[in-house]
Structures are given as structure tokens and as C-alpha cells.
Specification:
Elements (H helix, E strand, L loop, with lengths): L1 E11 L19 E10 L2 E7 L12 E5 L4 E4 L1 E3 L11 H8 L4 H6 L4 H9 L3 H17 L2 E7 L6 H17 L3 E9 L10 H18 L5 E6 L6 H12 L4 E6 L7 H7 L4 E4 L5 H7 L5 E4 L1 H7 L6 H6 L5 E2 L13 H12 L3 H8 L1 H6 L17 E4 L7 H4 L6 E6 L2 E2 L3
Parallel strand pairs: 1-4, 1-5, 6-7, 7-8, 8-9, 9-10, 10-11, 11-12, 12-13
Antiparallel strand pairs: 1-2, 2-3, 5-14, 14-15, 15-16
Helix pairs in contact: 4-5, 5-6, 6-7, 12-13
The structure holds N-(iminomethyl)-L-glutamic acid and fe (iii) ion (FE).
The site of N-(iminomethyl)-L-glutamic acid has 12 residues, from α3.
């Protein structure tokens, strides 16, 4: 099937030469074509150009013409960090925080991740799949065309595998690219409260081999933070997963800078995520490396914690990616459009930088920048069409509103 999208006011994030990511000053460059058309065939982008060069469209039985009606076309957003699969929401903790408790205080009294682990253990695989599917449909309609999803609310072999099987089922039943990350080291479960070493051993010697045996994960993650897992714990888990080809993508520097970034870079992590608390050494450690700093501003918004110093990082030549961190505790929102607004409003990123961070750099952080993350010939036909907006900056500017009218994944309209 061939699809031609015509009457596009502006085609955004056009790439003639495919790049794997953009860093520093380059992040300010965003190529676009005004008054454009786009062709997709067999799921891939095959052509694009100016409307005036679109030769008359002949009626063909296997050709579909879509009129963008003066809306803009973007490559779909790529969300490289989420915890989409969970057993229940945590709005009671939200109310506790309004009444003065901190996120860490709630966690210390058995709430937080442990609360989610209890809910997950008591929810069937079927129910988990149904609720995650519902959320995923909502995200795709808001423009997300690729998503990373973590386990980490299981914290037992049985429940971690259950979560990962749900993610596998999502991969099989949805057209978008989904990557699965094993996050057994998200929190120390109550049972191992006084014996973290034993839990680490369980992850390394039992969980990781089982996860790998059934091919349930692409990446390995550890919550490297005071009160959770130390740098040495992270090194132990990542090293244990090396034999199984799990690539590290890790939670670091959310509340404290404890050396997780230089250690993750040494472990050749694909990404380091959160980075709300950064010292100059952490920024230096990322320079000239293959590790993508992935920032999660809606977590800062919801928890009222500092925002990652995106401006400083970009000004010092680093690339950054943006993601939602969608989860029931620290970020109950998976809206990438809102993430872009926060990136611009709270982190002083320019709209061009935010768009690059949410497309090509986010694709890099999911290992898919060769096939997704921009409008380029040969890349996947993953696009969204907006309503009539005056410029691409309008998306982050018009925060909290939806400008997206139609979403196409692999060249086919998503209409669930
Ligand atoms: O990325 N920081 C660690 N994990 C999640 C939140 C976990 C939770 O509160 O459920 C995050 O913010
Ligand atoms: Fe997270």
C-alpha cells in the first residue's frame, strides 16, 4: 500500500543524511520543508518534497491520498523511558505529598515502589495487559510512536517475569516499536530488607538468566540512588547481565550524585536517565561518550524536585534526549507534548532542541535511530499530522492542549 500525504504546511525534522544523534549546538538545527508532501510505501518513508513538485496523482487501487489540510507533519515522538505496566495508581501518596510528606518519606514507610510491587503481585497478567494496552493506545494517540517499558514493580522472580511477559505481549500486539528493560534492581523488597546482598544475588543468578532464556528484555536497568542501590550494586548487576547481552540504561542522579554517571559511562550504558542532581564532574564524565543523557522533566514537575540542567549540558556540547518516565508514583503522565513544554519552559531548551531531544536523540536512547526518529527516506512511516498550527514552536507553547489529529504507524493510520 502506498500513501501520499499532501498539503502539509510544514514537514518537520527532515533528514537528507541520516544521523544517529545530535549534540550541543547542533541540537538547535531543525530541518523542515514548507508546503510539502510525503510518500510512504510498505510501511516506510519513500519520498518527500515540495507540493509544487508532486506530479498529478493518478487514481490507483493501492494508493491512498491523505489530505493534511494545512496541518504540520512530524515524525512520531519517541519515549525512551517508561514504567507503563503497573497494577494500580497511587493518588493517595499524591495527597500525602500535598499534606507535607516527601517522596522519600513515603517510600521509607513502605509506600512508593514497594506499594506498586504489592499492587502488581495482586494483579493478574490479563488485567495488567488490559490496563497497559489502554494506556498505550492513549499514548499513541498523543503522538508516541516508540516506547521503552521497564519491569521493576515485580521485585520477585515470578512478578518480574509476569511484567516482562506483559511487555512482550504489547510488543506482539501493537504496531509501534517497544523495547523492554529488566529493572529487578528498582527497590529492595521487604523480604530482603536486611539482606540486600541476597536480593542482588537472586537478580544476578536467578532472574537475569530466566529473563534472557525467554528473550524478555533488551536492556538492564538499576535504580542507583541512596537508599536503593549503590554504584557497586549497579556494577554487579550490569556485569552479571553482560553474558546475556543486556545493554545498560540506568536510573542515576535523581536525588543525589553518588558516582552513578561515571560508573555507567564505564559500563558503556546506552543512556543515563533522570540527572536532576548533577555536579560538574558528572557533566564532564558524559563528554565524548556514547551514553545519551535522558531527561525526565515531568517527574521534576510532579515531585517538585529540581529539573535536570539541560541548558548547561547542551551548552557544554552534550546531546540530550527527553522521555516521560510514565509511572504511577513519580510521573503519572505519558504525554510527550507536555514533556516538550516543560523542557522549553522549565529547562530553557529551544523548541528545536526539544524536538530533536524527543525524536532523533530519543531514538538513539532506544537503539533505533537508524530506522526511526526523523523524516528520512527508508525510515519507518511513523508520523503525526497536527491541526492548523502557526509554527512548530506552538506545540510546546500551547501546553496542555492537543494539536495532534492523526497518527500513522508503519504508514497505516492508527485508529484504535
Ligand atoms: O523513574 N526513580 C525510580 N523509579 C521511578 C519511580 C518509581 C515509583 O515511584 O513508582 C522513576 O521516577
Ligand atoms: Fe523511571
Amino acid at each position: 500500500m502506498k500513501v501520499i500525504v499532501k498539503n502539509i504546511a510544514e514537514l518537520v525534522q527532515v533528514e537528507e543524511v541520516i544521523k544517529e544523534k545530535v549534540s550541543g549546538k547542533e541540537m538547535k538545527n531543525l530541518s523542515t520543508l514548507k508546503d510539502a508532501f510525503l510518500c510512504m510505501e510498505d510501511g516506510l518513508i519513500t519520498d518527500f518534497g515540495f507540493m509544487c513538485n508532486l506530479t498529478e496523482i493518478e487514481e490507483q487501487s493501492n494508493l491512498k491520498v491523505i489530505d493534511a489540510k494545512g496541518g504540520m507533519v512530524f515524525p512520531t515522538w519517541i519515549d525512551a523511558h517508561s514504567h507503563l505496566v503497573f497494577g494500580g495508581t497511587r493518588e493517595l501518596e499524591f495527597v500525602d505529598r500535598i499534606n507535607g510528606l516527601t517522596y522519600q518519606e513515603i517510600a521509607n514507610r513502605g509506600g512508593g515502589i514497594l506499594n506498586s510491587a504489592e499492587k502488581l503481585a495482586n494483579t493478574s497478567e490479563e488485567k495488567l495487559y488490559a490496563s497497559a494496552s489502554k494506556r498505550l493506545i492513549e499514548l499513541i494517540k498523543m503522538g508516541t510512536g516508540a516506547l521503552e517499558i521497564k519491569s521493576g514493580y515485580g521485585l520477585s522472580t515470578e512478578s518480574e517475569l509476569k511484567m516482562l511477559r506483559v511487555i512482550k505481549r504489547l510488543k506482539e500486539n501493537f504496531p509501534i516499536t517497544i523495547k523492554a528493560t529488566f529493572l529487578g534492581a528498582h527497590a529492595v523488597p521487604l523480604k530482603y530488607k536486611n539482606n540486600k546482598k541476597e536480593y542482588l544475588k537472586l537478580i544476578a543468578e536467578e532472574m537475569i538468566p530466566l529473563v534472557a532464556k525467554d528473550n524478555l528484555a533488551d536492556y538492564i536497568d538499576v535504580f542507583c540512588e541512596k537508599g536503593y542501590f549503590s554504584v557497586a550494586d549497579m556494577e554487579y548487576i550490569v556485569n552479571a547481565s553482560k553474558a546475556y547481552d543486556l545493554i545498560p540504561k540506568v536510573h542515576v542522579n535523581q536525588f543525589n550524585s553518588i558516582g552513578g554517571i561515571p560508573a555507567a559511562v564505564k559500563l558503556d550504558a546506552l543512556s543515563v536517565d533522570h540527572l536532576e542532581v548533577m555536579n560538574p564532574k558528572d557533566i564532564d564524565a558524559l563528554k565524548g561518550t556514547r551514553t545519551m543523557p535522558t531527561l525526565l522533566p515531568s517527574c521534576s514537575f510532579f515531585l517538585k524536585i529540581p529539573y535536570a540542567p539541560a541548558r548547561k549540558m547542551i551548552d557544554q556540547g552534550l546531546p540530550v534526549a527527553l522521555a516521560t518516565d510514565y509511572n504511577p508514583g513519580s510521573t503519572p503522565s505519558g504525554n510527550m507534548n507536555f514533556v516538550l513544554s516543560l523542557a522549553c519552559i522549565q529547562m530553557n531548551m529551544n523548541p528545536e532542541e526539544a524536538i530533536n531531544a524527543a525524536t532523533i536523540n530519543a531514538a538513539y536512547a532506544m537503539g533505533i535511530s537508524k530506522t526511526e526518529g526523523s523524516i528520512a527516506k527508508g525510515k519507518k512511516g511513523n508520523i503525526f499530522i497536527t491541526n492548523k498550527i502557526p509554527s512548530y514552536s506552538f506545540i510546546p507553547y500551547n501546553f496542555g492542549h492537543n494539536c495532534i489529529e492523526r497518527v500513522f504507524i508503519n504508514g497505516i493510520e492508527f485508529d484504535r
